[in-house]
C-alpha cells in the first residue's frame, strides 16, 4: 500500500499528471492574458495542451553530429527533477513529501532543468545552441543569488518564532508559522523579499523579458534549435511545469496559512493563487517590457532583486 501511495504521488498527484495539466493551463492563461493586454483575442486556454500532443506526434530528428543518448535523455532528466520538486511543495496543509531540509533540496533540484537544457544543447552540436548555452549560464548566475537570499531570509524569520532563532529549511514549518501568525506577505520586513521573488520567477521560468537563452527571433531557440518531436514536447512541458512550481512555491512561502481544511478546496485555492501570480509576475512583464540583452539581465538581477532580498534579510536579522 505504501508503494502504491508513493507511485500515485509521483505519477498522478501532485506529481507528473497534475503538475503537467496545471502547468499547461497556467501557460495558456499567460498567453491569453498577454494577448488581451495587447488587444488581441489570443489562443484558447488549452492551446498549450494541443501543442504538446501535436509535438508528441511529430518525428524526432537527431542531428548527425549530436551525442544521441545525451541529446534524447536531457529533457527527461529535467522533467524528473521538476516532478520531484512538485512532491516537496506543500499546498497549505497537504504535502506528499516533507523533510527538515526540503528548501535545500528544492534549490538543487530547480537547477537541474537548466543544466539539462545546457547538456541537451551541447549534445546537439549546433552553434546556435552554443550561444544559448552561454546565455543560460548567465541566467543561472543572475537569479540564483537573490533566490537563495530570499529563502534564507524566510528561513530566519520563521526560525526566530518556531525554532528558537535557528534558521529553518523546512517548508512545512513555514506553512505552520503562517497558520499561526498569518501570511508572510503581511510582514512588512518581508515585502521586499516577496517583490524580489516576483522578479525572479520570470527568469527562472525562461519568460520574456528574460528569455535570453532561447531568444526565438535572435538565436532561433538557442539550446532547443535542433530539437523536434517528443524531446521538444518534453522541454516545452518542463517550461510549463516550472511555471506552476515557481508560482506555487511563492504561494507556499508568502500566502500560505490555515487554508480551509478541505484538501480539494485548498488545492483549487493554490491553483487560483498560482494563476494570479502568473498574471502579476510573468504576463504583465511580458506585455509591457521588451526583451533584455544578456548584459542587462545580469546587471538587473544583481542590482534590483538582490538589493530587495538583502533589505529583507537585514530587517529580519535585526528582529523586525
TrEMBL record:
Keywords: Membrane, Oxidoreductase, Transmembrane, Transmembrane helix. It is a multi-pass membrane protein. The keyword RNA-binding does not apply. The chain crosses the membrane at residues 6-29, 71-91, 103-125, 137-155, 181-201, 262-285, 297-318. Its main location: membrane. The keyword Protein biosynthesis does not apply. One of its GO terms (molecular function) is oxidoreductase activity. One of its GO terms (cellular component) is plasma membrane. Its EC number is 1.-.-.-. It is found in: Membrane. This is Hydrogenase-4 component C. It comes from Caloramator mitchellensis.
Amino acid at each position: 500500500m505504501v508503494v502504491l501511495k508513493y507511485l500515485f504521488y509521483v505519477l498522478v498527484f501532485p506529481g507528473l499528471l497534475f503538475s503537467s495539466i496545471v502547468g499547461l493551463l497556467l501557460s495558456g492563461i499567460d498567453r491569453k492574458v498577454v494577448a488581451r493586454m495587447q488587444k488581441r483575442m489570443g489562443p484558447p486556454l488549452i492551446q498549450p495542451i494541443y501543442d504538446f500532443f501535436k509535438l508528441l506526434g511529430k518525428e524526432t530528428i537527431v542531428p548527425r553530429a549530436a551525442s544521441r543518448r545525451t541529446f534524447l535523455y536531457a529533457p527527461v532528466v529535467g522533467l524528473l527533477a521538476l516532478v520531484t520538486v512538485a512532491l516537496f511543495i506543500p499546498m497549505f496543509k497537504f504535502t506528499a513529501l516533507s523533510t527538515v531540509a526540503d528548501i535545500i533540496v528544492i534549490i538543487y533540484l530547480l537547477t537541474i532543468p537548466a543544466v539539462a537544457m545546457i547538456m541537451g544543447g551541447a549534445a546537439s552540436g549546433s552553434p546556435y545552441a552554443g550561444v544559448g548555452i552561454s546565455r543560460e549560464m548567465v541566467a543561472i548566475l543572475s537569479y540564483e543569488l537573490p533566490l537563495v537570499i530570499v529563502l534564507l531570509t524566510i528561513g530566519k524569520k520563521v526560525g526566530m518564532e518556531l525554532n528558537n532563532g535557528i534558521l529553518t529549511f523546512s517548508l512545512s514549518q513555514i506553512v505552520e508559522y503562517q497558520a499561526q501568525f498569518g501570511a508572510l506577505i503581511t510582514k512588512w520586513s518581508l515585502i521586499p523579499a516577496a517583490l524580489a521573488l516576483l522578479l525572479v520567477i520570470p527568469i527562472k521560468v525562461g519568460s520574456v523579458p528574460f528569455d535570453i537563452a532561447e531568444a526565438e527571433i535572435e538565436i532561433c531557440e538557442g539550446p532547443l534549435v535542433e530539437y523536434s518531436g517528443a524531446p521538444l514536447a518534453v522541454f516545452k512541458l518542463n517550461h510549463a511545469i516550472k511555471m506552476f512550481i515557481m508560482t506555487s512555491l511563492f504561494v507556499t512561502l508568502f500566502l500560505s496559512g490555515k487554508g480551509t481544511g478541505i484538501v480539494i478546496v485548498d488545492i483549487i485555492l493554490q491553483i487560483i493563487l498560482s494563476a494570479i501570480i502568473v498574471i502579476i509576475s510573468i504576463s504583465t512583464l511580458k506585455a509591457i517590457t521588451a526583451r533584455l540583452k544578456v548584459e542587462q539581465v545580469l546587471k538587473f538581477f544583481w542590482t534590483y532583486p538582490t538589493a530587495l532580498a538583502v533589505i529583507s534579510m537585514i530587517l529580519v536579522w535585526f528582529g523586525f
